[in-house]
Design goal:
Largest sheet: 3 strands, antiparallel
Subcellular location: Membrane
Strand order of the largest sheet: 2-1-3
Region (Disordered): 64-262
Mean pLDDT: 80
Transmembrane segments: 12-32
Protein name: Protein TolA
Main location: membrane
CATH topology of the domain at 269-381: Fusion Protein Consisting Of Minor Coat Protein, Glycine Rich Linker, Tola, And A His Tag, Chain: A, Domain 2
Length: 383
């Protein structure tokens, strides 16, 4: 566009200068023939009056002709100078306009650069804010988990204390019942002996029958008491066995959960260590990206607790948003399985497995690739 304007600016003065020269030449051509008859007439006159014209008059006419020629030449040179001046002025104006356009373009580029710089600073500030918010959320989750664990331990302690108190109260009741039974037996025995002595005194004839009856009753009472004691002992042992089995089952479940958690943590640590070594040794960005994606998938699968009763055909796709540091800033379901519990377990698995700090070891191109990506979850894919 600048070159086009420059041609228009120089062309017009040039055409004017050429036109002016042509006009001067045409005027000169037209003027010379008009004066030739005068010269002829003058020559006739001179021929007639040759004796009256002097050399001085001829010199004056020649001087006048030279003056007219010099004037024409001066006019032509003035016209050419004026055309050159106009062309120079046009050229300077074109150069000034080009310089102004360049200055405006430079100013526009600088403004765009400043805008991009401002956007970059704002993006970095936003990323820093999100990272701080993610860290605060993580700390809040840790505090909530610690508080929940403390509350669970307190409730467990209260349950154990209540269980011990119930056992102590049951033992005390059993002891009191046993003591009352023994006292009742002793009193009954004393009463029987007293009655027996009186009866023996009164009825010596019926002593054998009374003795036989007493023995039978004593045996029956002893048998009944033995059966009662055996039943009570059996119930006590059954209750003790049930309580012991419940405690063993609770302890077994707790140890199993602890062992599973320890194995999961150990597997995750081993997996992360292996993937870190793989990333460190990667030669190309694509290899590092594949290694990082495998690391994320394996870490999430290790932390995934599939809800009981989930169908094997369920499938959910989760979108992850990460910072360049590997911090998780967002996780949402983009393709639901149709089972709310299954979808929640997928999100919880990603939250437990994050952050993925190995992302900082990736090349910049691979980092931008994993700032946002999807993971698919199917129970059958978990190894």
């Amino acid at each position: 566009m600048a070159r086009h304007d420059s041609r228009v600016g120089y062309g017009l003065p040039t055409l004017l200068a050429v036109g002016l020269h042509v006009l001067v030449v045409v005027m000169s051509v037209i003027t010379l023939p008009s004066r030739e008859p005068e010269a002829t007439s003058s020559s006739v006159v001179q021929a007639t009056l040759v004796s009256t014209e002097t050399t001085t008059d001829q010199a004056l006419r020649a001087e006048e002709a030279r003056a007219r020629a010099a004037q024409r030449q001066a006019d032509e040179e003035a016209a050419a100078a004026e055309a050159d001046a106009a062309a120079a002025a046009e050229r300077q104006q074109a150069e000034a306009e080009a310089a102004q356009r360049q200055a405006e373009q430079q100013a526009e580029r600088e403004a765009q650069q400043q805008a991009r710089e401002q956007e970059r600073r704002e993006a970095e500030a936003e990323a820093q804010r999100r990272a701080e918010e993610a860290e605060r959320q993580a700390q809040l989750r840790q505090e909530q988990e610690a508080s929940a664990e403390a509350e669970r331990q307190r409730q467990e302690q209260q349950r154990r204390e209540a269980e011990q108190q119930r056992e102590a109260e049951a033992a005390e009741r059993q002891r009191q019942e046993e003591e009352a039974r023994r006292q009742a037996e002793q009193e009954a025995e004393a009463e029987r002996q007293r009655q027996a002595e009186q009866e023996a005194e009164r009825q010596r004839q019926a002593e054998q029958e009374a003795e036989a009856e007493r023995q039978r009753q004593a045996e029956e009472e002893a048998r009944r008491q033995a059966e009662q004691e055996a039943e009570a002992e059996r119930q006590r042992q059954a209750e003790e066995e049930a309580r012991r089995q419940a405690e063993q089952e609770a302890e077994r479940q707790r140890q199993e959960a602890a062992r599973a958690a320890a194995e999961a943590a150990s597997d995750i640590d081993s997996l992360i260590a292996g993937e870190q070594e793989s990333i460190a040794n990667a030669r190309q960005a694509e290899q590092a990206a594949n290694s990082f994606q495998n690391l994320v998938r394996n870490a999430v699968e290790q932390a995934w607790i599939i809800p009981a009763g989930s169908a094997s055909g369920l499938e959910a796709t989760l979108q992850l948003d990460l910072l360049p540091t590997g911090e998780l800033i967002g996780a949402r379901i983009v393709s639901s399985s149709g089972d709310g519990a299954f979808d929640r377990s997928v999100i919880q698995a990603v939250e437990r497995a994050s952050p993925f700090r190995e992302m900082r070891q990736l090349p910049p191109a691979a980092q931008s690739q994993f700032r946002q990506f999807n993971l698919r979850f199917r129970p059958g894919d978990v190894r």
